[in-house]
Amino acid sequence: MAALKSNPTNANAVVGLAAIALKKSLDNASDTYNFVMSLSKAGPDPSIEPSSDVCAESYSDALFKLVDAVPALSSRALSDANTLVSAAITYADKCKQSFEGKASNSLGNRNDYLNQLCTVTLDITKLIS
């Protein structure tokens, strides 16, 4: 840890890794939002309609948080970036809970993957915070 913090080049490399993980998180959240929207467009299904509405709103919120995390990370406002990324995890979890027992595992897997990507981002930023 001390070596990472003592050498600005190392710290920059770690921020770069966090930026890559954040970009992957953002891409996944965007893809999942589009997937949820496609569920809504597939036609009315009373068994999932309320859940798809919750997920669409949750993933929209998650996307905004991840987009806001990009400049926070770039400016090394790591606490802010971590708060925003953590909020994205919370929104994805809200979506997952709304669909439990209602949809295929593909949505649950997408939520889990976003959670993992965001957790990697948080773990990386903790190395330099």
UniProtKB/TrEMBL annotation:
Coiled coil: none
Keyword Signal listed: yes
Pfam family, one: PMEI
Gene Ontology process terms (BP): plant-type cell wall modification
Alphabetically ordered keywords of this record: Disulfide bond, Signal
One GO location term (cellular component): plant-type cell wall
UniProt cross-references to SUPFAM superfamilies, sorted A to Z: Plant invertase/pectin methylesterase inhibitor (SSF101148)
Top-level taxon: Eukaryota
Residue span, Pectinesterase inhibitor domain: 9-124
Gene3D superfamilies found in the cross-reference section: Invertase/pectin methylesterase inhibitor family protein
InterPro entries given in the database record: Invertase/methylesterase_inhib, PCW_Enzyme_Inhibitor, Pectinesterase_inhib_dom
GO MF annotation, one: enzyme inhibitor activity
Family to which the UniProt record says this protein belongs: Belongs to the PMEI family.
Name this protein carries in UniProt: Pectinesterase inhibitor domain-containing protein
Species: Amborella trichopoda
